[in-house]
Amino acid sequence: MTRLFTPRGLWNEMTGADRAASGVILAVAGVLTLGLRAPGEPARAVVRVGGDVVAELPLDRPGTFPVPVRSGTVVLVVEDGAVRVSESSCSGKVCIAMGAKDRPGDLIACVPNALAVRLEGRPRAGDREAPDSIAR
Amino acid sequence: MTARIVARLAVLIAVAATLQIAEGLIPKPLPWLRLGLANGVTLLVIVRLGAGAALGVAVARVVMGGLVLGTFGGPAFVLSAAGSAAAWLVMAASWRRLAPPLSLLGVSVLGSAAHVAGQLVALGAVLGVGRGVLALAPVLAATAVPLGLVTGAVILAVHRRLPPWEIRGTLAPSSDR
Questions:
Q1: Which of A13, A25, A97 is closest, CB to CB, to B30?
Q2: Spatial CA neighbour of A97 closest among A45, B44, A88, B39
Q3: Among A42, A46, A133, B61, which residue has the least CB neighbours within 10 Å?
Q4: What are the tens digits of pLDDT across the range A63-88?
Q5: Distance (Å) from the C-alpha of residue B5 to the closest C-alpha of chain A?
Q6: What is the ipTM of this complex?
Q7: Minimum CA–CA partner of A30 in chain B
């Protein structure tokens, strides 16, 4: 019984199908890791609160940006071509723990505040110029 | 439904809600990691009392957890509900159709992965980023496997040590798998 909680004991307890199912999930994780690498350089951090875009922050312009959210304020910091959450009025602080993001497609989420920061590539020709401050 | 079943379900709901609340409060190296013991209770009930009872326990637990943690109705509650519902669905279906060859451990891993998937879908909807949430999928899917195994091992140990639950009435007795 106690052997169940050692790696070998756990492995021995698993059926072939258990191992296969675990392997498939790990493989999916690997494929997603490789498949999600978007080309190009991230140009801006698109900030959403409750699904609505409230700001687009160019990553080449360092600064500190307070974003009003339902529980108070989330402070975003842009520096060294990356964006991170430095302060948040949420309970879990998961958003702060997610650290600095600098690759296209990267996402910072603060669930209690319904805040998302997603890194996107440079706007294509014809796109309107992205505002560089809180748009609301 | 006998008094024995009512009492048993009440205890299970209390245990599941307590585990859910406790897991949110315990300091962790990565704050979004959850061992998933509350979902483990869902699995234990699927195995011992059936999928219907497990759904009831899961719904009551999610609501209680939301009320105690103050997230009820908010984005975090939506994620909790979506993850728990997906985990219940996948674990109930796989325990019924795929075990064997899957054991309780494999069903737990599938439930853990389903919990992540359900949360990601809800996250994409709540945050308005849609498929953008896939950026979080690799690390979540990878951690779902070891966390699902550990949760499964705990539930397997509990299942083996508990005496059989004598069930009369509408809830079917479990096999001794």
A1: A97
A2: A88
A3: A133
A4: 999 999 888 899 999 998 899 999 88
A5: 28
A6: 0.82
A7: B138
